[in-house]
Specification:
single chain; mainly alpha; about 45% helix; 3 strands
Amino acid sequence: MDRTNDGLMNAYTWMIKVRPGIVGHNELIESLERAVAKHPKTIFIASHLMNLDYDLTRLGQILERNPNLYGDISARFSELAPIPRFVAQFIEKYQDRVLYGTDLATYDELYLNTTFRLLETHDGHFYVHEHFTYHWPLYGFGLPDPVLKKVYGENVRRAFERAGANAA
């Protein structure tokens, strides 16, 4: 992994090296899905889109099999923004299961210059170097207002309401 591998060059610093006794990424995904399926009354929120931002088709299949699973988009803007049309289609299809999240410090510039541009506009070929170390440009998803309302807040409220009803 080096500068020619796009996102892999950054992922290399936080990846888990598979060794005896340590599960790999695929096994971790399968383990989480087994836990979600085993506990259908428990609401699960998979941060970072379950680290399946590279395979949204697989993530969609997992969401379809598990109505108690949600995914948040935190820390995956750089990976999603190069394929904005596909991401917009994915979010629109699973608009009741995708949540907004962020691992970044909360301040106005994050929302005005990054979140807003990515989720709400069709802006193209822009960079946000203060947040992301990747060298490729970002492109907005241009999500419609009804979808944005769900992603920004309605979905998480509904998930917590479901969790509360299941606990009673």
